[in-house]
Write a structure and sequence with these properties.
Elements: E1 8-12, E2 18-23, E3 29-36, H1 50-57, H2 67-76, E4 80-85, E5 90-97, H3 101-113, H4 119-137, H5 140-152, H6 166-170, H7 174-184, E6 190-196, H8 200-211, E7 230-234, E8 240-247, H9 256-267, H10 273-280, E9 287-294, E10 299-307, H11 312-329, H12 333-350, H13 354-368, H14 374-382, H15 386-396, E11 403-408, H16 413-420
Parallel strand pairs: 2-6, 7-11
Antiparallel strand pairs: 1-2, 3-5, 3-6, 4-5, 8-10, 8-11, 9-10
Length: 421
C-alpha cells in the first residue's frame, strides 16, 4: 500500500514558535490550528480547570470584537472555528475557503492574542462550565473512564480532570485567566499548523503575528507513574458501565504502533475478539471495546463494557479469560493481517480531511519533534509482527497491575475483585 506524501515545511521563529504548513493544490479550503503545550497537567491544584476555562473565555470577546461579531464574521464566510483542551495541550482552530482564509486567520489571532476576559462574561461562562461538569456526572460512559484516570494517577496533575472542579473555578477572575495565559502561553510551547490551500501572504501574516509573542519560562511538569486502583460509583441507571485498565506506553513510545495493533485485535472493531465472543456469541453486553490514552510519560490501555447488572459477572469473567488467553498465546496471523489493514486504511482515509492533516502535523511535532510521512506510518504498521505483539502483551497485560472502575447499580465490591484479580 503506497501512500501519497505532500511536502510539509517548517519555520522556527526567533522566539521559538514553530509554524508548520502543507500546501494541497487540489482543495479549496485550509485548516489552521494554534496549539499550545498547556493543559490540565500543567495546572496547580488550586487552579484546576483554568486551561479549559481559558478555552471557553477567548470566544466571549476581544478588544476589537464582541462574541456576537466573532460568530457573525465566521458565519459570513462559511467558516468554522472551535477549540479543545486536553491534559497536555490546548488548541484553537478554524477552517475556511482559501478566498476567505485571511479573515479566519485574523479572527483566530484576535481571540488568541487579545481576549477581553471580562469578569461579567466570566460569571456567565462559569455557569456554562458548571453545567458541563454536571453533564459529565450524568454521562456514565465518560464518568467511568474519568474516574479510572483520576485514580490511577491520583495525587498527580494527570489525575486532575481537564474540565476542572467547581471550588477552584469559583475563585477565578478575568485577571486570573489573563495572568495564567501570560505565564503559560509561551512561544517555545506553541505550534501553528496549517494544511490545505493558502497563499504566501497567509504564512507571512502568521509569521508577523507570532514573532511578537513574548517569551518566558515555566516550571517543567513532573513525570507521572501509573498506580493500580479500584473504584466504584453507585448511580441509579439502567446499565452498568465498567472499565478495566492496564499500564501502557507513552505517546512517543517506539511500541505505539504495536499497541494500536494489539488493541485493535482485542477490541477495536466488530471482528475483534472481545466483541465477537462477549457480545456476538454470548450476548452479555451492549457495548465492549478497547481504548488507549497516551501521555508524554505514561499511558493506559482500557477495556470498556456497557451491560446489565444481571450479566456483568459472566461478561467480566469472560473478558478476563479472553485477555489472559491473549497474553499467553497472542493473536493469530489472520487477526494481525486484518487489524493491520484496518489501521492503515483508517490512517489513509482520515488524511483526506484537512483538519486531520493539520492535527497530525501539530500532534506529531508536539510529541515526537518531527512529522512522520504517511509512507513511514504505513511501514511501521507493516513491521508489526506476532512476536512483537506477544512481547508487548506480556509487558502490558499484567494482572498484578490491573485497575477497575464501575458506575451504575454496583453490587458487592468483593464480587468484582474475585472475578478480575
Amino acid at each position: 500500500m503506497k501512500a501519497r506524501n505532500n511536502m510539509v515545511e517548517k519555520i522556527v521563529l526567533p522566539n521559538g514558535v514553530r509554524i508548520l504548513f502543507e500546501r494541497l493544490d487540489h482543495v479549496r479550503s485550509a485548516s489552521v490550528g494554534f496549539w499550545v503545550g498547556s493543559g490540565s497537567r500543567h495546572e496547580p491544584e488550586e487552579q484546576n480547570g483554568i486551561s479549559h476555562f481559558i478555552e471557553h473565555m477567548v470566544f466571549k470577546g476581544t478588544k476589537r470584537r464582541t462574541a456576537a461579531q466573532i460568530a457573525e464574521e465566521m458565519d459570513a464566510i462559511g467558516g468554522q472555528m472551535n477549540a479543545f483542551t486536553t491534559k497536555e495541550c490546548t488548541c484553537f482552530y478554524a477552517r475556511a475557503l482559501d478566498t476567505h482564509l485571511h479573515i479566519a486567520l485574523d479572527v483566530l489571532c484576535d481571540i488568541f492574542f487579545e481576549p477581553k476576559m471580562d469578569d461579567g462574561d466570566l460569571v456567565t461562562e462559569r455557569g456554562v462550565i458548571f453545567e458541563e461538569i454536571d453533564m459529565y456526572e450524568d454521562t456514565p460512559d465518560d464518568l467511568v473512564v474519568e474516574r479510572l484516570f483520576s485514580n490511577v494517577y491520583r495525587g498527580t496533575p494527570l489525575g486532575m480532570p481537564v474540565i476542572g472542579v467547581k471550588p477552584a473555578l469559583e475563585k477565578m477572575t478575568g485577571d486570573t485567566l489573563a495572568s495564567y495565559m501570560r505565564g503559560n502561553y509561551l512561544p517555545q510551547h506553541t505550534i501553528v499548523s496549517i494544511s490545505g490551500s493558502f497563499s504566501d501572504s497567509d504564512i507571512q501574516f502568521l509569521k508577523d503575528r507570532f514573532s511578537a509573542m513574548p517569551g518566558g519560562t515555566r516550571a517543567q511538569s513532573a513525570n507521572v507513574d501509573y498506580a493500580p486502583a479500584f473504584i466504584t460509583c453507585a448511580k441509579p441507571i439502567e446499565q452498568n458501565h465498567l472499565c478495566l485498565g492496564f499500564p501502557s506506553t507513552s505517546a512517543a513510545s517506539e511500541k505505539r504502533h504495536v499497541l494500536q495493533t494489539m488493541s485493535s485485535i482485542l477490541g477495536g472493531g466488530m471482528s475483534s475478539r472481545l466483541f465477537q465472543r462477549v457480545r456476538e456469541e454470548r450476548g452479555l453486553c451492549y457495548s465492549i471495546y478497547t481504548f488507549s490514552a497516551a501521555h508524554e510519560d505514561t499511558g493506559v490501555l482500557g477495556v470498556y463494557l456497557a451491560l446489565s447488572d444481571k450479566t456483568e459477572e459472566d461478561a467480566l469473567g469472560l473478558t478476563h479469560k479472553i485477555v489472559r488467553e491473549f497474553r499467553e498465546n497472542g493473536p493469530t496471523a489472520s487477526e494481525l493481517d486484518r487489524a493491520r489493514e484496518q489501521l492503515k486504511a483508517n490512517v489513509l482515509m482520515s488524511m483526506e480531511s484537512m483538519n486531520t492533516r493539520m492535527n497530525h502535523m501539530a500532534r506529531s511535532e508536539m510529541v515526537l519533534g518531527r512529522i512522520p510521512t504517511l509512507d513511514e506510518i504505513i511501514e511501521r504498521y507493516n513491521s508489526v509482527t506476532l512476536d512483537s505483539i506477544m512481547e508487548l502483551a506480556s509487558e502490558i497485560l499484567d494482572f498484578d497491575r490491573l485497575s477497575f472502575s464501575a458506575v451504575g447499580k454496583i453490587g458487592d465490591e468483593d464480587k468484582y475483585k474475585r472475578i478480575i484479580y
